[in-house]
Design a protein that fits this description.
550 residues; alpha/beta; Rossmann fold; six-stranded antiparallel β-sheet; six-stranded mixed β-sheet; elongated
């Protein structure tokens, strides 16, 4: 339930705080005083969108903060799922900056609006005139039937299968639509793959071939340079290795005189061996270098063939060519396995379709099984609200699967004897709509642990004895739920445990909305005004006292 609601810098509200009773609260005030503004502010805590137009003072941020007692709600798992700190007294806060940036917090942890909205659905249910209008829509009627039948778990199970079914259906349909196209491309892809397989280009091959070709084309120059290197290293009278040998002898003689010259001797010896190995390798390389016309032509032909493939496939590297070959191989293999793929996709589709039929039927049975009881209880409540001849019926049709099930259910209603029930949008007046919606809310409230229910002018078109009966039902609801009723009816206003009064100040420069709890005498005067107008008579005051007493 709501323990405290603080609104700062929102619309016509500079600063407002209310600490409602745990049971029945009523809110009254003149039209335009700001009652709907309060609901708009509360809507921000429920995840509704907002912009900077809501700011009372444009240079300051707007803050809406609600403290909720959720000790009886069993929401620990929900909070754990969103990685939120759970507290029996949870604080939900919304901030809108002058720049228009919106931030949301639950127990001081930043959250997205979607998370805020999901948590808030377990805390508050606001019934407005818009909900009364929505009563005429099939989707809203279905939600109410599911609420009465307590189908939450069945709906979750159905939607899980429905999502899997739609994925399988999409995969099967896409595979079918692409199958013919895939088969048409198959011959060409197979030709391209065979061409690549025939050439069988290898990783790094092109670079290796081009280097090998350069060696053949410059064989004479390379052989000449290698020969010169060998002469310098070993074969001349003053070769490098011969001079190193002489240097080694000199250092050995010096090392005999002083030990610290020995490392120089070792290094010269090491260099001698290294140069000797280099000379042998140069000699070996020189033996392998020769001009081979046939080999040159063979390499040139191979390089040309690889470049033709690169150009054909619009790529610049052998690596890309190998990747293209792999893709072609997958496409060709897929065609070979296409019938198996289609069969497998069809099997998955049919399995999920059968499972969907099963869970859909279970959901349908749950919905249709409550028709008689729902009808009986609704008609009984409507009779208490001065609609003794009201009758309810349900029209059920099997529909194509949607995320809500395989049913099309329409609530049929008649307020008068001898009139066949028809769709709500065709037969119900404003007052009848309000009473019907309230009775449905009353029944649904008995099947949920939702802590706070807010009624925004549910009393449209209701007066007299009907209003008193409506009050009794609200009082009964308030024993299990916190009820907040925004009302124009004195009967309802007089029945709250706390009576809040919303008003505007009289400052001609800027209208500001305020709220206060009415004490006994203030309450009498306010209710008398609701009965007889701005200047209530003594009789109106006596009637107000009587209502408060009762």
């Amino acid at each position: 339930m709501i323990k405290s609601l603080v609104i700062k810098n929102y619309a016509l509200i500079q600063h407002l705080q209310m600490d409602p009773s745990a049971e029945f609260n009523t809110i009254t005030g003149e039209t335009g005083a700001g009652k709907s503004i309060m609901l708009g502010a509360l809507g921000l805590l429920l995840g509704n969108r907002a912009d900077t137009k809501v700011l009372f003072e444009e240079g300051k941020k707007c803050i809406i903060e609600g403290t909720f007692n959720i000790a009886q709600q069993s929401l620990q798992k929900l909070f754990d799922g969103f990685e939120l700190d759970y507290q029996d007294e949870t604080i939900i806060r919304r901030e809108i900056s002058p720049a228009g940036k919106s931030r949301a917090f639950i127990n001081d942890t930043p959250v997205t609006l979607d998370v805020m909205k999901q948590v808030a659905t377990f805390l508050v249910d606001i019934h407005s005139q818009r909900d009364t209008y929505l009563l005429g829509t099939s989707a809203h009627q279905m939600r109410m039937i599911d609420g009465y039948a307590q189908n939450k778990e069945k709906l979750l199970a159905y939607r899980k299968v429905f999502d899997e079914f739609k994925q399988a259906e999409k995969a099967y349909e896409e595979l079918q639509s692409h199958a013919e196209e895939i088969r048409k491309e198959s011959d060409y892809n197979h030709f391209l793959l065979e061409e690549l397989d025939k050439v069988s280009v290898q990783q790094g091959e092109l670079q290796q071939l081009e280097e090998e070709l350069k060696i053949i084309e410059h064989a004479e120059e390379i052989k000449s340079k290698l020969f010169e290197c060998l002469q310098l290293l070993e074969h001349s009278e003053y070769s490098i290795t011969a001079q190193l040998q002489q240097a080694a002898k000199n250092i050995d003689q010096v090392a005999g005189l002083a030990e610290h010259y020995e490392p120089l001797s070792t290094r010269i010896e090491s260099s001698f061996h290294e140069l000797t190995d280099i000379a042998k390798e140069i000699e070996s390389e020189s033996d392998h270098v020769e001009f081979d016309k046939a080999k040159q032509e063979e390499i040139q032909e191979r390089i040309g063939l690889i470049y033709q493939l690169l150009q054909k496939h619009h790529t610049n590297s052998v690596e890309d060519l190998l990747a293209i070959r792999e893709k072609l191989n997958l496409k060709v293999t897929r065609v070979l396995n296409l019938d198996d793929e289609l069969k497998k996709a069809q099997g998955q589709y049919e399995n999920f379709k059968a499972e969907l039929d099963k869970v859909g039927k279970s959901l349908t049975n749950s919905r249709t099984s409550i028709f008689d009881k729902f009808k009986s209880e609704l008609e009984s409540l409507l009779s208490k609200l001065a609609m003794p001849h009201a009758s309810i019926d349900f029209k059920h049709e099997v529909a194509n699967p949607t995320s809500s099930g395989v049913d099309k259910i329409t609530i049929l209603f008649s307020a008068n004897a001898g009139i066949v029930p028809d769709e709500l949008k065709n037969v119900a007046s404003g007052g009848e709509f309000s009473r019907l919606m309230f009775c449905i809310k009353f029944l649904l409230a008995g099947k949920t642990s939702l802590p706070t229910i807010i009624f925004d002018e549910i009393d449209t078109g209701i007066s007299g004895e009907v209003a008193l009966k409506l009050v009794n039902m609200m009082k009964k609801m308030s024993k299990r739920h916190q009820v907040i009723a925004i009302t124009h009816l004195p009967q309802i206003a007089a029945s709250g445990d706390l009576h809040y009064y919303v008003y505007k100040n009289n400052d001609p420069k800027r209208s500001v909305t305020n709220i206060k709890i009415l004490q006994s005498q203030e309450r009498e005067i306010e209710i008398a005004k609701m009965i007889a107008g701005e200047n209530p008579t003594e009789i109106a005051l006596e009637n107000a006292k009587e209502l408060l007493k009762n």
